[in-house]
Design brief:
Length: 553
């Protein structure tokens, strides 16, 4: 296979580990901390997880005595969307496993959890593992979004685990995947299975985090990738001086990506969905904020700018959120009748009869393109696919109308020419940054230490991440500690609580203190491409978000 120069060079990169994990594996032992409880709904979640509720957090220390390991058979699954660094989680797991006992085996179930259910797998070898070190993507075994949630699936999982004589399964995924890992661990214990389950925190969205999981892997690389592109666009905007660029970035449930990219690039506008919801901002309020910046910059002779928009923004606008909820209910009941209508006019009139007066007013305000997306582009559950709505084009459309009105009134004399962009998949499989390469390798290595010590229902946790890697701490946290109850498909279900942008947190406060100046002046910063070789101050830095959260700048 033909390799790029960077691919060849990255194969030889040796990821850094926390100091404790550099020691002889046979002398590393677990130390238990305080008993844990779920973030909320404690009694109900305890009743659902009697075997794994209340377990203690774990850290690792060094013992004088050696504890040689017997042969272990371990499996790994990549679950959900891709995130940079996934390959290194597997290589770290593999290296620790083989370092402890050369006879141990690691298999990978193909294409996500479905590979476990269908017993489709590959056994890893040194040569195969070596060809994926420090590279992006999940192509080492593929990923998938099959949920492990039914008793029938769990029974199949037990049989497959028994067939391969598995000591443990490591599930690499986001909040839903690690929720499934916790449920699977509980079920295995209930049925007397000796197969352990360990999770690893993955998602570029950055919403799988808490006091122990400081950052999910892939967030660092993805935001650096998007920030490079945004910085390039800012440079172009400042050179051509004639376009306003509206850039939508991934992150449906939380705005961590948008906020991090804003901290890296200092655009003129960046919306944070959580703030929009808290302030009860309407679409007009959002457009007015853009218009104010456009007009002020035009008065300064600058008819250009850059705005960052989180993918899920539209769902946080209260009147649109209400509209989407009504549309979902209508389609759940009247989908057949609606689908029998051919002409758009008939569908429009149908919605006029079904929607409340306020929601129809919002619906009729939207551009035709967005109206059709809301009605026709739905997921398998019949819900609006919010992530496919081109929010950036919607905002451009409203802003154009408002600026035209201002021009008629003589209050705006500038020129407004807008371009739209969506950055999503570009960041999900990039070559991992040095931070993600090191962090992911450490997560995998650490996952082995947890299963070696006999733990199940835990998530691999590496902390103190804003410091150099030698100061990182290794340990584990019971997944159930992250649980709360949420309404899913009409039922309350235990799930990992998503971490949204905290409006009283240091990263948002830093942004909020500076955004008014950014809106008026051209103060762009240009992060450039991810650097792999050179000074640590350039190559090993983590996100601005993490630095600010841990007291840095």
């Amino acid at each position: 296979m033909e390799l790029s120069p960077l691919q060849k060079a990255r194969y030889s990169y040796e990821p850094k580990l926390p100091e404790i994990l550099k020691n002889d594996i046979s002398k590393i032992v677990a130390t238990e901390g305080e008993v844990t409880e779920s973030v909320s709904d404690q009694d109900k979640i305890k009743a659902l997880f009697p075997k794994t509720y209340g377990m203690r957090e774990v850290s690792f220390t060094l013992s004088k005595d050696s504890n040689k390991a017997e042969k272990k058979n371990v499996a790994v699954i990549l679950s959900g969307g891709q995130a940079p660094g996934g390959h290194n989680v597997i290589t770290g797991l593999y290296d620790a496993l083989k370092k402890d006992n050369k006879e141990s085996t690691l298999i990978g179930f193909k294409n996500g959890p479905s590979g476990l259910l269908e017993d489709k797998y590959i056994e890893f070898t040194d040569s195969y593992i070596d060809s994926f070190r420090n590279t992006g993507g999940f192509d080492i075994i593929g990923s998938g979004r099959t949920k492990l949630e039914t008793e029938e699936q769990f029974e199949v999982a037990i049989k497959v685990a028994e067939k391969h004589n598995l000591n443990a399964i490591v599930i690499i995924g986001g909040d839903d995947s690690n929720t499934n890992a916790a449920v699977l661990a509980e079920y295995f214990l209930e049925k007397g299975s000796k197969c352990q389950v360990i999770g690893c925190p993955k998602t570029i969205d950055g919403d799988l985090k808490n006091d122990v999981i400081e950052i999910s892997f892939g967030f660092d690389t993805a935001t650096k990738t998007y920030s490079e592109l945004i910085g390039n666009i800012e440079r172009d905007a400042n050179s051509a001086k004639k376009y306003w660029h509206f850039i939508r970035v991934m992150g449906r449930s939380a705005s961590h990506i948008a906020l991090e990219c804003a901290l890296e690039t200092q655009p003129n506008i960046c919306f944070i969905s959580e703030e929009v919801e808290k302030k009860n901002m309407s679409l007009e309020d959002i457009a007015d904020q853009v218009v104010a910046s456009v007009v002020k910059r035009s008065e300064n002779g600058e008819n250009f700018g850059v705005a960052i928009i989180p993918e899920g923004l539209i769902e946080f606008v209260p009147e649109v959120k209400k509209l989407i909820s009504e549309l979902n209910d209508i389609m759940a009941i009247d989908e057949k009748e609606f689908n029998e209508l051919d002409a758009w006019e008939s569908k429009y009139e149908f919605m006029q009869k079904k929607l409340t007066l306020d929601s129809f007013k919002v619906f009729s305000f939207l551009p035709l393109e967005i109206e059709k997306q809301l009605l026709m582009d739905r997921d398998p559950h019949g819900n609006v696919q919010v992530s496919r709505i081109e929010t950036e084009k919607l905002i451009i459309s409203i802003v154009e109308k408002k600026l035209a009105d201002l021009k008629k009134e003589g209050k705006y004399k500038g020129k407004f020419s807008a371009l739209s962009h969506f950055f999503g998949y570009e960041g999900r499989c990039a070559f991992p940054s040095n931070f993600d390469a090191d962090y992911c390798y450490s997560l995998g290595y650490n996952a082995y230490m947890l299963l070696r010590e006999g733990y199940t229902g835990y998530i691999s946790a590496i902390t103190n991440l804003s410091k150099p890697s030698k100061e990182w701490k290794a340990g584990g946290m019971p997944i159930v500690k992250m649980f709360n109850l949420e309404q899913r498909h009409g039922k309350l279900k235990p799930v990992i609580k998503k971490a949204l942008v905290e409006l009283d947190g240091a990263p948002f406060k830093y942004f909020a203190e500076r955004r008014d100046e950014w809106a008026e002046k051209t103060l762009y910063t240009y992060p450039g491409a991810i650097q792999y070789y050179g000074p640590e101050s350039v190559c090993d830095i983590t996100t601005r978000t993490l630095a600010l959260e841990q007291g840095g700048k």
